[in-house]
Design a protein that fits this description.
Chain lengths: 521, 369
């Protein structure tokens, strides 16, 4: 059987930079093929290059034929006919892939009428059929909805419905589940697998997550720095990885446990009845008509050298807890640090305390001031808290401690990779010698191998300095690898709390069980 | 002085932009020269030697009588009588036939008697911006000739001299207007954007009302009440100029105040004032630097416009706008229009090139080779 899509010897060059080197991939009809690789490995570029969706000025060489028809260098009209019709796409970020100014119905209609004009009534029925197929409940009433009125999972379903609108033969899915919560992720993957069975669709699945690949792909290509280093049947590949890089990817699963907390360790933080409600106001008089209950009631204590993991899906209020503990948003309830209340402090008294509790944010691109050099970023806190002595030496030592070369300190954040930036964020917090570090999803924007390095770094720092962590994450494996205690949150409520063994081995609540099942597939 | 690496990089980026780089040096040289306009275009000589003694009229005022004249008023060096008196050492016959005597004195002897020879060292253009040339101009405006390379205006004043002084006053005016209005605009925008809420709401309404005041009418009304001068006009333009930047800076601050690095800075315990200055402002700087040239060039434009309409600086100031007004009144004297047009266009283009270069140099993502 001749392959549906045959890419041979594809190379893509952006100016000086060769993003894809001599890549050959084949996909047969009805088959699921995965391309795995870390960020920058050229996996998305490969897919986009086959249908000429790359920006102008990129040089593409090699061949890609779809159903025997050559795509590279084909006239724009041929490509337009194939794109969205025979080959469809789903992208990572469902919020930005849908136009926020048009209703779901209108965007669906556009996807259909572009390639197969039909009368209004047929079109309407087709849209409902598609939405039903992708599992949107009560599809009729969702048509006039705008993208922001749907949840992330629903938006991704709509994207899939649009991609299926013209009965494509090939679906290219570029990290379609990365931005979604684990339970939603599982649902979307199930949906894709089901659609494939029913429609006989071929899927080219681009992802960094080996867990997903193992689950759904028939065959797998592993890419590193623009080249395919290994490919084969998924099962065989996982059984017996040939290339060192593949093995490295497979081993990149967080494991192990943090060092035990010494008995009788001092209490660092105590939180009692923490509550964050945002008032909803109406009318000219700003009457409070209700509250958005971001966090309802959180209690915990944290000892020296101990890590509290806070787990939950998006919207569960876990980041709000972090901001409240940091006193960056107003909250109710008692927060004590080192035995003294900090929820009653204001102004300078609070500012003086701040060196004891620091935060590391999720987004390594947003949490560093783009116009300050690394040295300025790391040393800023020292200046505020009246550090005397050799600041430059302390900055160098801290950078070395987080695994960065102090010679790079004159550079700017955009010159660093994601993992390096996260190290800079950690250095900024660490230089003040805090007692407590709040880590808000510090690893979720990073590649798996880099995640492991950061986890190692955090463990070492904890062992060395006796730091206490509040570790916030949606990724249960990372939480398991770092935490002593775990809080499971859902919609502002603590669903379950306990030691890491209790939660992971003997979960009580149904929600925790669902989370565990979806995450530890 | 050592520059921090980012400023070195910016400097390098700026220099790599050839157009901006050359425009900058050309502007610096021209503006530098124009600061010494008195030595380039002046109706007082740089130096005079009279009866063996050296005088410096450019710095000191000398009476007509000191050079053998009759009056205690200031010497008029452009007057042929005075030129004759100085070169011949004060011969009486200069009052009757200055040109004849001057021609005769070229060999150092007049009517057979040797004279006490003197000389006059003139600036490049022997006219100031307000010198009325009664000697060499028969009908004003006078066309370009050997005495006035760019011609004269309708009051027989040298156009070249007026452009040199006009250039200087335009740039100085723009600097004096732009710097305080930019500072005001940034402060107002920063406060609105960073604190948001009720502060922002009230301030916004105020700027809306303020921004809808018709500037031109207010200036026209005020110019009827006060005699306009440089400082009043500057003050007025600053008062109406700051809100050009206000909205932009406000938007940047609103956007940036919830950034994670701003939150991180607050978690570090940085003061609001410092966060605004150190973390938020540098990111609002590109927007500011993009708008600044328009403010700078806009204030030159406003000055020129007001002068053109006759509501700007009084006639005693050299002004490019007033030159334009004259060009409009005397369409048969095209050198006026040409001089006004080319001087304004080349000045504004060079400024735009320079600012463009500065803006690009501040962009951290732009790569220069």
């Amino acid at each position: 059987m001749s392959p549906l899509l045959k890419i041979s010897g594809l190379s893509v060059t952006f100016g000086e930079n060769r993003a894809v080197r001599d890549v050959s991939i084949e996909i047969a009809a009805g088959e699921t093929v995965a391309i795995v690789g870390e960020s920058g490995s050229g996996k998305s570029v490969t897919a986009l290059a086959t249908v000429s969706l790359l920006p102008e000025g990129t040089e593409i060489s090699g061949a890609a034929s779809f159903n025997g028809e050559e795509l590279i260098g084909a006239p724009a009209s041929t490509l337009r006919n194939i794109r969205g019709n025979e080959i469809s796409f789903i992208f990572q970020e469902p919020m930005t892939s849908l136009n926020p100014l048009h209703t779901i119905g209108k965007q669906m209609r556009e996807a259909i009428s572009l390639h197969q004009p039909m009368n209004k009534a047929d079109e309407h029925n087709r849209i409902l059929e598609l939405l039903h197929k992708v599992g949107i409940p009560d599809a009729e009433s969702r048509l006039p909805a705008y993208p922001h009125e749907l949840s992330g999972g629903q938006r991704q379903r709509v994207m899939i419905a649009m991609a299926l609108a013209n009965r494509p033969k090939l679906l290219i899915a570029d990290e379609p589940t990365t931005a979604l919560d684990v339970t939603i992720q599982a649902q979307i993957l199930e949906l894709l697998a089901e659609l494939q069975r029913k429609e006989g669709l071929a899927i080219l699945f681009i992802t960094h997550d080996l867990g997903i690949v193992r689950h759904i792909a028939d065959r797998t290509y592993v890419m590193q720095e623009g080249a395919v280093v290994e490919h084969g049947e998924t099962a065989a590949l996982f059984e017996n990885p040939g290339h060192a890089y593949t093995r490295k990817l497979m081993e990149a699963v967080p494991g192990g446990a943090p060092a035990k907390v010494p008995a009788g360790a001092a209490e660092i933080m105590q939180v009692k009845g923490l509550r964050v409600w945002f008032p909803v106001q109406k009318g000219i008089l700003k009457r409070t008509v209700g509250h958005i209950k971001a966090v309802n009631r959180v209690d915990f204590t944290l000892r020296k050298g101990e890590t509290l993991g806070i787990v939950g899906e998006s919207g569960s209020g876990k980041t709000t807890v972090a901001l409240a503990i940091l006193r960056l948003i107003s909250s109710e309830g008692e927060i004590s640090l080192l035995g003294s209340r900090i929820d009653t402090l204001h102004g300078n008294a609070l500012r003086a305390k701040r060196k004891d509790f620091q935060i590391v944010f999720q987004d390594p691109f947003g949490s560093l001031s783009p116009r300050m050099s690394v040295e300025e970023i790391v040393s800023e806190g020292l200046g505020i808290h009246g550090h005397s002595g050799d600041m430059a030496a302390l900055v160098d030592a801290t950078l070395k401690e987080v695994g960065l070369d102090p010679r790079m300190k004159a550079r700017y954040p955009h010159e660093f990779s994601g993992g390096q930036r996260q190290r800079i964020s950690i250095a900024r917090a660490l230089v003040l010698k805090p007692k407590l570090l709040i880590l808000d999803e510090p690893t979720s924007a990073l590649d798996m191998t880099v995640q492991l390095q950061i986890i190692d770094l955090l463990r070492n720092l904890q062992a060395k300095h006796g730091l206490s962590y509040v570790f916030i994450s949606h990724d249960l494996r990372v939480v398991q690898a770092l935490s002593h205690k775990v809080l499971v949150m859902k919609e502002g409520d603590v669903v379950e709390a306990g030691s890491v063994d209790d939660i992971f081995n003997a979960a009580q609540s149904g929600y925790t069980k669902d989370l565990l099942k979806a995450a530890l597939r | 002085m050592t520059l921090s690496p980012i400023n070195q990089r910016r400097l390098h980026n700026f220099c790599a932009n050839r157009r901006a780089y050359y425009s900058w040096w050309l502007l610096v040289v021209l503006f530098g020269l124009s600061l010494f306009s008195e030595f380039i275009a002046n109706d007082r000589p740089l130096m005079v030697s009279y009866r063996g003694e050296i005088y410096a009229p450019i710095f000191n005022t000398y009476a007509d009588a000191e050079f053998g004249g009759d009056f205690q008023t200031e010497a008029q060096y452009l007057d042929p009588d005075m030129q004759c008196l100085i070169t011949t050492g004060g011969l009486e016959s200069c009052f009757d036939d200055p040109d004849g005597v001057l021609a005769d004195a070229a060999d150092g002897v007049v009517d057979g008697t040797p004279i006490n020879e003197g000389w006059i060292l003139w600036p490049l253009i022997p006219y100031s911006f307000n010198t009325v040339d009664t000697q060499n101009v028969n009908t004003a405006p006078g066309a370009p000739d050997a005495f006035h390379w760019l011609g004269t205006d309708d009051q027989a004043r040298d156009v070249g001299a007026r452009i040199i002084y006009g250039f200087r006053i335009s740039i100085l005016f723009a600097l004096v207007v732009t710097i305080p209005s930019a500072l005001l605009g940034i402060m107002a925008g920063a406060i609105q954007g960073y604190f948001g809420g009720i502060t922002d709401l009230l301030f916004q309404r105020f700027t809306e009302i303020w921004g809808s005041l018709p500037m031109l009418y207010i200036i026209i009304i005020l110019s009827a009440i006060f005699t306009m001068n440089f400082w009043i006009l500057t003050g007025l333009l600053v008062l109406f100029g700051w809100n050009a930047l206000d909205g932009l800076v406000r938007a940047e601050f609103l956007r940036a105040r919830n950034f994670e690095y701003v939150r991180a800075a607050r978690a570090l315990g940085v003061r609001d004032r410092t966060i605004m200055r150190r973390h938020v402002l540098p990111n609002a700087m590109v927007a500011t630097v993009t708008i600044l040239p328009f403010m700078f060039i806009g204030s030159i434009g406003t000055l020129t416009t007001l002068d053109f309409l006759g509501f700007g600086l009084p006639g005693s100031y050299p002004s490019l706008g007033e030159l334009g007004l004259q060009a409009k009144a005397h369409v048969t004297s095209p050198w006026l229009a040409a001089a006004a047009f080319f001087s304004i266009v080349s000045m504004l283009s060079m400024l735009v090139f320079v600012f463009e270069g500065v803006r690009d140099a501040f962009d951290p993502r732009k790569v220069f080779v």
